[in-house]
């Protein structure tokens, strides 16, 4: 059973602090914060299947206020969704207006205590990461207590307990499960102080996290306490950074794995080498049955996630590769690898020319995990689900991205970047489109920047995507004029000209998605207005994605920091 709560602890703390602030007992502190709002007016547009809210207008707004002194800090966030923007958030609906985040924190000597909401992460997040990606609508903030303590130099301890944010309905809606966790980390260079004379360093860490949820299943005997542990090493030198982490989760029957009783495992390794003008990175990940949610019946993969499984792919910023075929980590089973090389030819060399030349080559790939199903339907071993081995690569190819970027400044005023991508994309698995064929796509992107003077510049992009699957071919053109320090204007058009005989046979017509933007920046305030079409697609941050519906209309965004 999920609970609708905002615990009284922090509001009471804030109410207690306010008279002190006004009386000067906590004088000398600072009040700061930020405000942001995104409003969109929706037009009818049958050609693109645009979503139109009944109210015609959607509005997402946030206001943060933080008061801090040397030892004390308290904060509150007001949120408003009147109503929320179409397609937002990634998980459960957000409704109404109210307080969605509040906390009080103090520091005394080597200890820090936080009561209320907080974000935290152990290692790379394989068993615990509480975080927010506001524009995805992902927020699994903890609501409870966190203690950090440094008993000795180089030794760091953390403990957390609480429930997770599940949704928002004029106030925070917490999930049913209780999350408890502990993390310890030792930094050897700090620990040994002056006796550790090497420029190298080794950081060793370990974590344990458990969730509690009452078992009310009439048919299955479900574990009420589910634990997970992780170990990590991070070795650094002036040129090398080596990181490894392993996590193990006990059996956790849940709605995402079909209520099987198999354990979960995760392992990752990354190595980076860098010197001036050259860098190389290699990495490998393996995830097996690693959905870890504080509610075993969480309705979507975005809700109440205790952990975070980082993707091992390049995070593209160009529109077509970033929004049409981005990769999302597959927690139930994935083996992935990535390699990247960066090189800069020096100025004055044959390939470097007058200003130097930068080249980056990146290759990433992801496969299904090799598994063997266990037991017959009526066999008790069937409840284990399947057997597997870590880094055991299956036959199904989920994803591949091979890309090459060449960036070159040709004069004091002009700079260009040319990027080629070859993508293999199992849209059935990654985007949940059963029966759809694997997409094979080639993309070519040209970016240019021209500086008219120190204050004014123009940046442009021309992108082309060709494929015989899915929606067919796309071309995108973008131009952005900047008048520093205050103004910018931009225009973009995306054109889906098909090139897919199956779609053409169904009568699908080529279509344009034009949009114009204008913005003004002054001090800590930023205003931006957009008008035009938004195509349906995928919006991703850090390997976490949400579906964005097609829309036509006017958008206003305001951000302010003080």
The number of helical runs is: 5
- Report the helical percentage: under 10%
Determine the N-to-C terminus distance.
41 Å
Strand content: over 45%
Output the radius of gyration.
Answer: 26 Å
| Biggest beta-sheet profile | 25 strands, mixed
Structural class: mainly beta
Overall shape:
globular
Poorly predicted regions are 1-25
What's the total number of strands? 31
Mean pLDDT: 89
Explain this structure.
The protein has 562 residues and is mainly beta. It is built from five helices and 31 strands. The protein has helices at residues 9-23, 188-192, 319-323, 427-430, 501-505, and strands at 30-42, 57-68, 72-81, 94-108, 111-118, 120-121, 129-130, 132-133, 138-139, 142-152, 155-169, 172-174, 178-187, 201-212, 225-236, 240-249, 264-275, 278-288, 333-345, 357-373, 386-409, 414-425, 439-451, 456-467, 473-483, 487-498, 511-522, 525-534, 537-541, 544-548, 551-561. It has a 25-stranded mixed β-sheet that branches. The protein has a two-stranded antiparallel sheet with strand order 6-7. A two-stranded antiparallel sheet has the order 8-9. Strand 25 and strand 26 (487-498) form a beta hairpin.
Question: What are the main properties of this structure?
Answer:
562 residues, 6% helix
Give a topology summary.
Blueprint: H1 9-23, E1 30-42, E2 57-68, E3 72-81, E4 94-108, E5 111-118, E6 120-121, E7 129-130, E8 132-133, E9 138-139, E10 142-152, E11 155-169, E12 172-174, E13 178-187, H2 188-192, E14 201-212, E15 225-236, E16 240-249, E17 264-275, E18 278-288, H3 319-323, E19 333-345, E20 357-373, E21 386-409, E22 414-425, H4 427-430, E23 439-451, E24 456-467, E25 473-483, E26 487-498, H5 501-505, E27 511-522, E28 525-534, E29 537-541, E30 544-548, E31 551-561
Parallel strand pairs: 4-11
Antiparallel strand pairs: 1-2, 1-31, 2-3, 3-4, 4-5, 5-10, 6-7, 8-9, 10-11, 11-12, 11-13, 13-14, 14-15, 15-16, 16-17, 17-18, 18-19, 19-20, 20-21, 21-22, 22-23, 23-24, 24-25, 25-26, 26-27, 27-28, 28-31, 29-30
């Amino acid at each position: 059973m999920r609970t609708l709560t905002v615990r009284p602890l922090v509001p009471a703390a804030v109410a207690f602090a306010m008279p002190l602030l006004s009386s000067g007992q906590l004088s000398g502190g600072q009040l700061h914060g930020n405000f942001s709002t995104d409003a969109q007016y929706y037009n009818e547009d049958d050609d693109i299947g645009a979503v139109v809210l009944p109210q015609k207008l959607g509005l997402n707004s946030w206001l943060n206020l933080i008061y801090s002194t040397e030892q004390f800090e308290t904060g509150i966030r007001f949120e408003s969704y009147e109503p929320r923007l179409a397609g937002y958030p990634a998980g459960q609906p957000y409704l109404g207006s109210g307080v969605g985040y509040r906390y009080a924190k103090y520091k005394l000597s080597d200890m820090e205590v936080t009561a209320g909401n907080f974000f935290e992460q152990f290692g790379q997040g394989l068993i615990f990461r509480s975080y927010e990606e506001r524009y995805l609508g992902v927020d699994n903030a903890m609501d409870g207590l966190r203690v950090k303590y440094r008993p000795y130099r180089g030794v760091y301890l953390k403990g957390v307990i609480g429930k997770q944010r599940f949704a928002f309905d004029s106030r925070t809606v917490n999930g049913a499960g209780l999350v408890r966790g502990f993390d310890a980390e030792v930094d050897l260079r700090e620990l040994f102080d002056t006796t550790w004379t090497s420029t190298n360093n080794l950081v060793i860490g370990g974590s344990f996290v458990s969730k509690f949820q009452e078992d009310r299943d009439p048919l299955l005997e479900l574990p009420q306490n589910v634990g997970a542990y992780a170990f990590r090493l991070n070795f650094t030198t002036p040129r090398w950074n080596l990181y490894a982490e392993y996590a193990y989760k006990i059996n956790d029957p849940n709605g995402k794995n079909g209520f099987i009783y198999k354990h979960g495992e995760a392992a990752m390794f990354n190595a980076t080498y860098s010197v001036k003008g050259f860098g190389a990175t290699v990495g490998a990940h393996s995830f097996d049955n690693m959905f870890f949610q504080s509610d075993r019946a969480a309705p979507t993969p975005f809700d109440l996630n205790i952990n975070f499984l980082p993707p091992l792919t390049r995070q593209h910023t160009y529109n077509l590769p970033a929004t049409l075929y981005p990769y999302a980590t597959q927690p139930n089973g994935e083996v992935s690898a990535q390699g990247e090389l960066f090189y800069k030819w020096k100025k004055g060399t044959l390939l470097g020319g007058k200003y130097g030349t930068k080249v980056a080559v990146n290759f990433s790939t992801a496969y299904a995990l090799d598994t063997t199903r266990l037991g017959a339907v009526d066999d008790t071993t069937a409840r284990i689900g399947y057997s597997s081995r870590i880094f055991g690569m299956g036959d199904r190819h989920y994803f591949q991205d091979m890309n090459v970027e060449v960036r070159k400044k040709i004069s004091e005023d002009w700079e260009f970047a040319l990027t080629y991508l070859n993508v293999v994309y199992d849209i059935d698995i990654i985007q949940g489109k059963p029966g759809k064929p694997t997409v094979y796509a080639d993309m070519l992107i040209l970016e240019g920047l021209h500086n008219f003077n120190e204050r004014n510049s123009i940046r442009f992009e021309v992108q082309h995507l060709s494929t015989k699957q899915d929606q067919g071919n796309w071309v995108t053109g973008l131009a952005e004029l900047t008048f520093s320090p205050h103004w910018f204007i931009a225009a973009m058009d995306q054109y889906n000209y098909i090139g897919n005989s199956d779609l053409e046979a169904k009568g699908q017509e080529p279509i344009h998605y034009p949009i114009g933007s204008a913005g003004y920046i002054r001090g800590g305030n930023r205003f931006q207005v957009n008008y035009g079409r938004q195509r349906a697609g995928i919006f991703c941050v850090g390997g976490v994605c949400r579906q964005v519906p097609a829309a036509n209309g006017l958008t206003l965004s305001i951000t302010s920091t003080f």
